[in-house]
Amino acid sequence: MVHLRRGAGSVGLLAVLVYLVDRSLAALDGYAPGEDYPIYSEVPKGLSFTCDDKLPGYYADPETQCQVWHWCVPGIGGNSMYSFVCGPGTVFNQRTRVCDWFFKVDCPNAAAYYSINEDLYKDDAGNYIAGKKKASFKDRWRRHSNKQRRKRHDRTTTTTTLSPTTQDIEEYDDSDK
């Protein structure tokens, strides 16, 4: 474990971080933003991507040169879709399912790697567990009613009736009021 002191250690760490960031951004030299790589600052409206025909998982969107990626989340009756934008100079790498430098990603062939999501949402035995359709209210009510009928049928009821005695009966006199 590295322990940094305030002062000299922090300045050294800052210098290393500046160097690494500067070196990373140098990889963008010679490329034109908006031409060589996309420059979206938010998810564009009207994209044609849909989760309807997809397994739950993470998907690059080639329509945005892969700068936008979609998370298809399993839910009741199908997938929900959440969309995100990778940071400047990065696009979604379908093979690794993370945002990466645009020049390291094969965006035109991203759809060929959509099947990589098949390893997600499985139990220890490898069975697919996501997106199971929840039973309708009618089906749940039918199962509940059948269960209640079986309980009533299986029960034994004993009724005991006590005869009233004079000791248990008190007369009520409301003449004082």
UniProtKB/TrEMBL annotation:
Residues 48-109 form the Chitin-binding type-2 domain. It comes from the Eukaryota. PROSITE patterns: CHIT_BIND_II. One of its GO terms (molecular function) is chitin binding. Residues 138-177 are annotated as: Disordered. Residues 168-177 have a biased composition (Acidic residues). One of its GO terms (cellular component) is extracellular region. Keywords: Signal. Residues 1-26 form the signal peptide. The keyword Hydrolase does not apply. Pfam families: CBM_14 (PF01607). PANTHER family: FI18007P1-RELATED (PTHR22933), FI18455P1-RELATED (PTHR22933:SF42). This is (diamondback moth) hypothetical protein.
